[in-house]
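Following up on my earlier thread - several people asked me to post the actual chain instead of describing it. Fair enough. Here it is, all 497 residues.
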Amino acid sequence: MAYTGTPLPLTVHPRRPNAPPALPEARVDGADPLLLGSAVGPVRAAELDAALHELREALAGRRIIDVNSTMNGGGVAEMLHRLQRYSRGAGLDAHWFTLRGDPAFFALTKQLHHFLHGADASGPPIDRAGAEHYAAVCEANAHALLDVVRPGDVVTLHDPQAAGLVPHLRRAGARVVWRCHVGADDQNLHTARAWAFLRPWLETADAYVFSREQYVPGWLAGRRVAVIRPSIDPLSAKNRPLEPSAAAAILSRIGLRAPADGDGDGPAIYRRGDGSVGRVRRDPTCLCSASPPPADAPLVVQVSRWDPLKDMAGVLTSFAEAGGSLDGVHLALVGPDVTGVTDDPEGGRVFAECAALWHRLPDRVRTRAHLACLPMADTEENAVIVNALQCSAAAVAQKSLAEGFGLTVTEAMWKGRPVVASAVGGIRDQIEHGVHGILLDDPRDGVSFAAETSSLVGDHRLAGVLGAGARRRVREHFLDDRQLLQQTSLYRNVARV
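Reply from S.P.:
Thanks for posting it. Predicted structure:
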């Protein structure tokens, strides 16, 4: 019998001697928000700095705490690192913890992730037994977190994995915000099923944050809801300017570009966040490639998690069926090491399906297609590899079937790359078709995807116009100062409750 969302008994017990160990905490060094002035201008940077200091005074010693499911892999983890970095640099007492869970817990929450996107998904039964297991895992995490959370602290819980902590933290006196990074523009039976499961846990939160207004479910009418679109840090290793020669050397080092005479055969070095010099040393953990793309070959890149909703297999199929329109063009499908993203049990299966498809391609296509899993052991090294791929691309693809927001689109736009992407979710908030990039009305239309990609690769004038418009769009709307300002305003209001 399907679970209908009937609340389970929720209690908050004193800390027990045999309670779970403390939750892992990310160690993030602070950075002065005024540093953003080099990208956004001194006026915007000063406005942010003042707002963060006002929040510090309003909190009066209380802390800001974020809780999500992983420190590595995906846009949420990257976003939290940046927001924590500038918050700490402004003197806020900010902390970031990650949950502990077993495979059954993460299989269930990944299924909820798909349902919130409006998509069907296989997984463990979402019944009362599944709800009881979810409740038990969340309660154990809540007990561990309550060792560090004090009454009045502002705690933001991210996505379905952390929703079950809301009642425990509220009863302990914390101010609780739940932030959902995914959603669907049109509600359906799948989204209804997800909300039926999650709603009992979420009812007592002080505030809710979504990436798009369309994602807000009707039952939240009259509650404190904020729409805060994600953003990128222009000063991070993933988004700092990278010289073409440095990008070429990095791609040559990992086997995704053949070195050219006098270019790309130097050391694969980059500048770390602390100012020191880093060197790309690690190989991809998996690489499907007959040989590196020639130095002068146009490269189409999609960087995504190995998630069925990102449709990496669909990109590869469309590339294979494009015929002569993409002759001479190389494709790189790049994602994280499938063992490095602990909260995503589908990654290994999706990559294996893409690799099997790659092996079945005819030689004329397989020699121009490349699949790579990037190592996650060093987050800055991973980020600079993605930077090198994006800024070296003749075009960047994001053929998602559904998308909460799509920060890989934002990253490519900031680098002035022409983007061809599906008109789904938050991608539509970023790109106006023909002004900031190309939008595909039907993400499953491989013929249109191949044709639009071919037009971007073959028309340098169009690519340049779209790339310039894309960069302006990101600077105006999708850099971290804007997201931090909105978050600061929300936290001030929540802290007054």
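The chain has a mean pLDDT of 92. That should answer part of your original question.
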